[in-house]
């Protein structure tokens, strides 16, 4: 009888979801979410105000949920291109474990939940910034820029750069130059990070019809642009110390990390078009992840240590 009922349900267009909790968690893009949460936490802690621990926890949770919502909406819309790329073919939607409707509903519910939670319990400036970030990533980047222009990741990178500004706004109710500099570090980091990936995954992007820089402008032009961005990113990473927001300890770390980024980008610049191994590009991609984590970790440590020293002196 149960089998007959199942057959009737399928004939009527109904299907019992086979998705697991792990599949829905994968929709959140947990690795991306972890980086979002970390940079938002740094922005929150760096703000020169007394932070209510409960509100801080609520803010970080809401930002994490908002980041996950963006990931789910991205996977819903990009299921067609994810299916033909080796890097993304096993994601829940193209693999058939989660239906497009489930992914869309999941993303929309989490979007509303995250924005409303942040607005009602923290403040509406940070909630507005979170709502704009979700919209920018899901609509402006995913639905438009990604498939239309090789500058997709340059403009779209703004979405990933907002979390420290949201964290700052959550505890201050405002946006400052210091938080904007944190935004700029991520914004300028994004193109060389993703173009390094695009260099050794260009076949994937070509199959999917995504106009990433190597497929449109060629490898040589992409390598030059990666190096140019590295030259800009390195001094911007030092700006917090140069403007007096951090101690010389952070400044020294930022200088070393920036020089390392330029060195890896220089190696990429020297690659030849027929370099199939792509070792310099892979090395830069790996280092870029280390760079972003390390420079924000240094910022966090510097803020915490500096405040502890000031309190001890008082």
Structural account:
It contains 15 helices and no strands. It has helices spanning 2-11, 21-27, 30-46, 53-77, 79-82, 100-121, 124-148, 152-161, 163-172, 177-200, 202-208, 213-216, 219-242, 248-269, 279-313. Mean pLDDT is 92; it is low at 1-14. It is mainly alpha-helical. The protein is flat.
Shape: flat
CATH class of the largest domain: Mainly Alpha
Classified in CATH, the superfamily of the largest domain is UbiA prenyltransferase
Listing every helix as H and every strand as E from the N terminus to the C terminus, the arrangement reads HHHHHHHHHHHHHHH
Enzyme class: transferase
Organism: Mesorhizobium hawassense
Membrane topology: Multi-pass membrane protein
Protein name: Protoheme IX farnesyltransferase
Give the key terms.
314 residues, mainly alpha, Tetracycline Repressor, domain 2, Four Helix Bundle (Hemerythrin (Met), subunit A)
Task: Quickly describe the structure.
By secondary structure, this protein is mainly alpha-helical. It contains 15 helices and no strands.
Please write out the topology.
Layout: H1 2-11, H2 21-27, H3 30-46, H4 53-77, H5 79-82, H6 100-121, H7 124-148, H8 152-161, H9 163-172, H10 177-200, H11 202-208, H12 213-216, H13 219-242, H14 248-269, H15 279-313
Helix pairs in contact: 2-4, 3-4, 3-9, 3-15, 4-6, 4-7, 4-9, 6-7, 7-8, 7-9, 8-10, 9-10, 10-13, 10-15, 13-14, 14-15
């Amino acid at each position: 009888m149960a089998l007959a009922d199942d057959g009737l349900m399928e004939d009527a267009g109904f299907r019992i979801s086979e998705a697991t909790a792990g599949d829905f968690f994968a929709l959140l893009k947990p690795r991306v979410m972890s980086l979002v949460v970390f940079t938002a936490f740094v922005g929150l802690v760096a703000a020169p105000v007394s932070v209510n621990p409960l509100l801080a926890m609520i803010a970080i949770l809401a930002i994490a949920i908002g980041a996950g919502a963006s990931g789910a909406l991205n996977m819903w819309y990009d299921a067609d291109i994810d299916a033909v790329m080796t890097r993304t073919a096993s994601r829940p939607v193209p693999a058939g474990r989660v239906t497009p409707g489930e992914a869309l509903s999941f993303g929309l519910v989490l979007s509303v939940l995250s924005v409303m939670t942040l607005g009602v319990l923290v403040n509406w400036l940070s909630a507005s910034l979170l709502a704009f970030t979700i919209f920018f990533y899901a609509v402006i980047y995913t639905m438009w820029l990604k498939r239309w222009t090789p500058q997709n990741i340059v403009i779209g990178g703004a979405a990933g750069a907002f979390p420290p500004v949201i964290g700052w706004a959550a505890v201050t109710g405002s946006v400052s130059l210091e938080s904007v500099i944190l935004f700029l570090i991520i914004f300028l980091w994004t193109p060389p990070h993703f173009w390094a990936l695009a260099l050794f995954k260009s076949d994937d992007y070509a199959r999917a019809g995504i106009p990433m820089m190597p497929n449109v402008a060629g490898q040589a032009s992409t390598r030059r642009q990666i190096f140019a961005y590295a030259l800009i990113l390195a001094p911007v990473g030092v700006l917090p110390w140069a403007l007096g927001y951090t101690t010389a300890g952070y400044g020294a770390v930022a200088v070393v990390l920036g020089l390392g980024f330029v060195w890896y980008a220089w190696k990429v610049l020297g690659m030849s078009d027929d370099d199939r191994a792509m070792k310099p590009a892979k090395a830069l991609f790996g280092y870029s992840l280390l760079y972003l984590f390390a420079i924000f970790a240094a910022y966090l440590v510097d803020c915490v240590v500096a405040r502890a020293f000031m309190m001890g002196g008082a």
